[in-house]
Amino acid sequence: MAYAALLSLARTTGEIILDQDRYSIPCNKKQQIRSIYEPFIFLQEFLEDFPEKANILDGQIRDLAYEAEHIIESFILMEARSHWWNVLAVKSKLKWQIRRIRKETNSITREVMIIKNNSADTVQLGASSSAAAGSPSRSAPIIKIGYMVGLHEDLLTIKSRLCGESPNLEVIPIVGMGGIGKTTLAKCVYDDPLTVQRFDIRVWVTVSQDYNADVVLSALLASMEEFDKDRSEESKDRSKEEKELPGAKVHKILKGRRYLLVMDDIWSTDAWDDVRLILPDDGNGSRIILTTRETDMAAYACRLSCPHKMRFMDETQSWNLLQQKVFAHLDCPPELENIGKEIARRCKGLPLAIAVVAGLLSTISNNPASWREIAQNVNSVTKGGQFENILSLSYTHLPHYLRPCFLYMGMFPEDCEVRVSKLIKLWVAEGFLRRLNRSKTLEEEAEVFLEGLVKRNLVLVTKRKCDGRIKSCSLHDLMRDLCIRKANEEKFLVNFSSGLPVKGRKNQRRVSVTRSGLPYFQKIYGLTMHTILCFLGISVANKLEGFRLLRVLDAGNVYVHSLPDQLFDLFYLAYLGICYLGRIPTAISKLHNLETLSLRAKNDWMNFITLNSFCLPLEIWRMPRLRHLVFYGRLPNPEGITSSSLENLQTLSIASHAMCSERILRMIPNLKKLEMYCSNYRPGENLLNNLVNLRQLEDLKLRSSFRIVFYQKDDFTFPKTLRKLTLSRVTLPWEEMTIVGSLPNLRVLKLTHWACKGSTWETSDGEFPKLEILVIEKSYLQDWITESSHFPMLKSLVLDECSKLAEIPEDIGEIPTLELIEVKGEARTSLVESAQRILEKQQEWGNDALQVRCMAHR
């Protein structure tokens, strides 16, 4: 993983050279450090400009970059922490190490220059080899028995688009992860009797990852040989120079015919552009089917309609497919049925995995013991061979800047639902992010990177926020196995629970520790370790001696009774996440590089009473690199602090409202997200009015304790920059909701746990001008009086546990942007009926875009 190593080296070197406050070292020493790094700039540019050549030198560059960074970090740490005699010894060793690093980088640079100078010849050679050895397929693949299982609805959907009334040439993309059945579905459609009858000519070409325009066009032409004969008589006498180009010939053959073209396994927009240029559109209902793993590729080719997204099979479909592939038309023996269903379930709905396992089951004895052994080793059965090659293509096709982000998913346990907010903070702390857009923060750029992995069908979305952004994600089990294997091969991380052999215990950078992996972790070599993620109740807080270069320590599931002294000696620590409820020592300020500090308690709601018991030390104001702070307690009064020392702080969570003094809020001017609990709030304090000083705030969660507190109008003033507001148990009177309605940029409003007091809510003109999502949960609201113009941009309305609300105002249905009404939890019958009336009325008017979901009970 050379690119990740180079990014990390660049960040470390840049910080040391530019940050005088943290790294007060002489200019000549900075020059020495710069001299180590400079040759790597050229190597990073090489990886970016020639990604297809990177595998040749990837391992060498990675190991050398890691070593260079280790040398620099060790030197800086020794400068900061050691006696002068140790420093002299290190400086002497540093000179020798610099000479050796330069020598090795010069050697690699010479090899890179040779590759770059010969790149044109290499590309030509690669194209020739591709044409000779791996040219695109000219015919559709043969699909064996059982191919229709689980695809009936998909088949009907695609056929309806094929046979649609539009005479224009239309593109139908089929999208999904490797092995999910895209090619199988395309083949089902391709061979369907209705398709054969409808189209004059059907053409199948498999594009594949190693795309070459000439090869693809030649394959297209070769697949049309029978149609070419009728039109090629006139060209027989032409000289060699006058022969038509493949593209022109393809166009001539298709011209005037209703054709179906299937482009299977397409990765590149260039491949699509080259083919699309030669395809005629004669207004006769011709169609193109694309199969791809890339959502962006599908959207690029089909901009007027949605791609067809392949879904995982459910348990019944999985079992039916397994039965058909193992027993054909025979019945499964009763004694094998239960264990067979378990095997099918463990394939997690991926048809390719089911096919591979079925192939093995077909070769063994049909007895419960043999099948039970397969059930216990489903993942190992699907490793290697064609199966791994198919899944590996998605990883091979990843841009270099996305590879470390994907491999990092291997740090999390199997079936873990990863919170995106945490994942992004970890990526930032690791230094994986490349600023593609300078107007975005690192965290915003990370969301773009994650969407990139999702669109490539490598990462699965498990939950989305109400505004559509990803809330949590995961990996399919078999994709996770691939992820961990690749990460292990590239010395990127070690996950001890994976069962894979570890390639040496030395020079490991990242480790994931579970209960089963603890014995291995205790033997790990710590001097090069940068990251420890700890799960399942194992405390590593007292085992930190020797991990002096640690950057990330996350043990958020592990309750720590005290913070060991060794923790505050971790000079490079950028991310610290632990479960801790207690006082923080002043030594926290020794963590000069800390960006994320997450000190969560075991139970958020049970610890409200402690909010005023603990206060962070004054030294927290002397930690300017902090970007994210989660804790139970109060921010200290910044006595003697004159500057905005926490000006990089973006998110602040689980803070007491006592922090809302004007002085404190002015010290965190760039805060974007604030989650705050109002414990023992007294009406008339007016502290919450000071929130207007947060002029960058976009997301505010304001919650109260279980004790009901009645707020007055003057208690609240919100920043006009707010885009998302969550109120919980604050009991703001409904008649004072104009305070919220007047916010000009508010997109999402969530009112939960009796957030508003009273029985009637009447809105006014000019309110909620940009509100898109409204959620009312657990409310005593009875009458809602409003008009469609009061929510002009509303897209989604969710009513959950609104047991007293009589009905949804009829005008809500007339909002032109409305897409969803959802009623769930305890609700009156009249409320459900009003939602249904709105739906029926909108359908009568031809509005088929509105969805109404009622999952309520009386």
Give a brief outline of the structure.
With 858 residues, the protein is an alpha/beta fold. 36% of the residues lie in helices and 16% in strands. The chain has 27 helices and 28 strands.
Chart the SSEs and their pairings:
Blueprint: H1 2-18, H2 27-49, H3 58-81, H4 84-117, H5 119-133, H6 152-162, E1 170-175, H7 182-191, H8 193-198, E2 201-206, H9 213-222, H10 225-228, H11 246-254, E3 259-264, H12 269-276, E4 287-292, H13 295-301, E5 308-309, H14 315-327, H15 334-346, H16 351-361, H17 368-375, H18 378-381, H19 385-396, H20 403-407, E6 418-419, H21 420-430, H22 442-455, E7 460-464, E8 470-474, H23 477-489, E9 494-495, E10 510-513, H24 518-521, E11 531-534, E12 552-559, E13 575-579, E14 596-600, E15 628-633, E16 651-656, H25 662-666, E17 673-678, E18 699-704, E19 724-728, E20 732-733, H26 738-741, E21 748-752, E22 756-757, E23 760-762, E24 773-777, E25 783-785, E26 796-800, E27 820-826, H27 829-844, E28 851-857
Parallel strand pairs: 1-4, 1-5, 2-3, 3-4, 9-10, 10-11, 11-12, 12-13, 13-14, 14-15, 15-16, 16-17, 17-18, 18-19, 19-21, 20-22, 21-24, 23-25, 24-26, 26-27, 27-28
Antiparallel strand pairs: 6-8, 7-8
Helix pairs in contact: 1-2, 1-3, 2-3, 2-4, 3-4, 9-11, 14-15, 14-16, 15-17, 21-22
Please, could you describe this protein's structure?
This protein is an alpha/beta fold and 858 residues long. It folds into 6 domains: 116 residues; 177 residues, P-loop containing nucleotide triphosphate hydrolases (Rossmann fold); 72 residues, Helicase, Ruva Protein, domain 3; 90 residues, Winged helix-like DNA-binding domain superfamily/Winged helix DNA-binding domain (Arc Repressor Mutant, subunit A); 108 residues, Leucine-rich repeat, LRR (right-handed beta-alpha superhelix); 132 residues. Helix content is 36%, strand content 16%. The chain contains 27 helices and 28 strands. The strands form 5 sheets. The chain has a 16-stranded parallel beta sheet with strand order 9-10-11-12-13-14-15-16-17-18-19-21-24-26-27-28, sandwiched between helices. α1 packs antiparallel against α2. The two termini are 57 Å apart. 39% of the residues are buried. About 2% of the residues have low confidence.
